[in-house]
Amino acid sequence: MLSMSAMVLTPPFDNDRDHVTTTSRKTRKSPSDAPRANKPSWGATGKAMLFILPTFLVLGMFVYFPIIESFRLSLNRVAPFGGKEIFVGIENYTRLLSSSEFWGTVGVSVFFMVGTVVFAIGFAVAIAILLSIPLRRFSWYYRTMIFIPVVISSAIAGVLFRLLYNPVVGFFNYWLSLVGIDGPNWLTSRTWALIAVTITVVWRQLGFNVIIALAGIQQIDAQLYEAAKVDGAGTFRRIWHVTLPMLTPTLFFLLVINVITSLQAFGEINILTDGGPGKATTNIVYQVFVDGFVGTHFVGKASAQAFLLALLIIGVSIAQFQGFSKRVHYQ
Amino acid sequence: MTSADMVAADASATPTSVELELDSEPKKRRFSELPIHLALLVIGLIIAVPIIIAFFMSFTPLPEIVGRSNPSILPETWTLDNYEKAWKASPFPRYMLNSFIQTGVITAAQVLLSILAGFAFAMFEFRGKAILFAVLIGSLIIPFELTFIPNFLLISDLGLANTYAGLTIPFLASAFGVFMMRQFFMSIPRDLYDAAKIDGASDWFYLWRVMVPLSKGAIAAFTIFAFLAAWNQYLWPLVITNEESMRTAQIGLRFFLVNQERATDWGAIMAGAMIVMVPTLIVFLVAQRQLVKGIAMTGLKG
Question: Do B149 and A73 touch (CB under 8 A)?
Answer without folding.
Answer: yes
